[in-house]
């Protein structure tokens, strides 16, 4: 960050709090205390009414207001992602307030940035709650947003679970948050089909100069709906004894946890899962403590696994 940007950021920081110490400013911007004192002096000389109280900190004189803040495209995109979570997991009142704040933010954006935000809104989908577990870094989330907006193919080095890394060139069509992690849905030129890439497993990413047309791809919502229709992604509903919940608290996110509700001695849990065999093997560990509500195909798979298990141990 250059000094002009830092001075502006310090001013915003001061106006956002009642009082800020020099050490807090130094920690916030990773600068020395000497640099803080120089920056405060520069703001004062520029006519900003900074009040400094020895041993207490700095504040801005009551009544002073900054001109409208200009957001960068990246900052606006980050706020949009936060808004997607607010829309899904907050109360109607908070949702309405956030929408109002986002509208004001859009009002101060440049025309091109407004257009980019509108494009991005259609390509981001949040489908499940935020998990408390660590899913690895999502350091390429911002790059993926840029590639989607600019309609550029990306080259990724992707690490599949328990498999070798593979080099892919893909056309990203959208970002989706489900099963406790961010995923990039993209057309894979290697597989000649759409693929779901967990962003935390992307080892490296490069935005290429290769453009692609979005018209030939479905929207992120259309893709997810297609997966549900084809049962590539299916909704699974189970009831599990309440005393079992501590044993599945974190594991449920790996299997596409969507929601849960308390029903007496049971908890009804809804999942969105694309690997039914793996899911069935997981819930078998809870034996008679779990009831499968739907779909019938999951019940059939569990019954078949139980029969195989019985034959296996009978033979032993």
From TrEMBL:
Say which domain of life the source belongs to: Bacteria
Q: HTH deoR-type domain location, by residue?
A: 3-58
Supply the InterPro entries for this chain.
CBASS_pafABC_assoc_protein (IPR051534), DeoR_HTH (IPR001034), HTH_11 (IPR013196), WH-like_DNA-bd_sf (IPR036388), WH_DNA-bd_sf (IPR036390), WYL_dom (IPR026881)
Q: Where are the transmembrane segments?
A: none
Family annotation (Pfam families): HTH_11, WYL
Per UniProt, the keywords (alphabetical) are: Transcription, Transcription regulation
> What name does this protein carry?
YafY family protein
């Amino acid at each position: 960050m250059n000094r002009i940007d830092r001075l502006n950021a310090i001013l915003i920081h001061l106006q956002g709090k009642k009082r800020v110490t020099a050490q807090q400013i130094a920690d916030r911007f990773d600068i020395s205390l000497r640099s803080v004192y120089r920056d405060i002096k520069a703001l004062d000389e520029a006519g900003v009414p900074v009040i400094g109280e020895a041993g207490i900190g700095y504040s801005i004189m009551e009544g002073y207001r900054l001109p409208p803040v200009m957001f960068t495209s990246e900052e606006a995109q980050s706020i949009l992602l936060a808004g997607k979570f607010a829309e899904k997991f907050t109360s109607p009142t908070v949702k309405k307030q956030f929408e109002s704040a986002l509208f004001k933010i859009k009002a101060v954006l440049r025309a091109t940035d407004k257009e980019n935000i509108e494009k991005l809104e259609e390509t981001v989908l949040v489908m499940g709650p935020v998990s408390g577990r660590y899913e690895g870094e999502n350091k390429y989330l911002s790059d993926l947003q840029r590639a989607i907006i600019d309609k550029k193919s990306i080259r990724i080095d992707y690490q599949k679970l328990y498999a070798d890394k593979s080099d892919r060139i893909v056309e990203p069509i959208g970002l989706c948050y489900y099963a406790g992690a961010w995923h990039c849905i993209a057309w894979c030129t290697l597989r000649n089909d759409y693929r779901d890439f967990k962003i935390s497993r992307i080892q490296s990413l490069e935005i290429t100069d290769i453009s692609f047309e979005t018209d030939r791809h479905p929207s992120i919502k259309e893709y997810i709906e297609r997966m549900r229709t084809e049962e590539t992604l299916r909704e699974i509903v189970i009831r599990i004894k309440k005393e079992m919940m501590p044993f599945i608290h974190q594991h449920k996110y790996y299997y596409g946890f969507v929601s849960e509700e308390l029903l007496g001695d049971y908890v009804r849990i809804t999942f969105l899962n694309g690997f039914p065999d793996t899911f069935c093997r997981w819930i078998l560990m809870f034996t008679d403590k779990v009831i499968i509500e739907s779909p019938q195909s999951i019940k059939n798979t569990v019954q078949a696994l139980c029969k195989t298990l019985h034959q296996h141990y009978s033979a032993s």
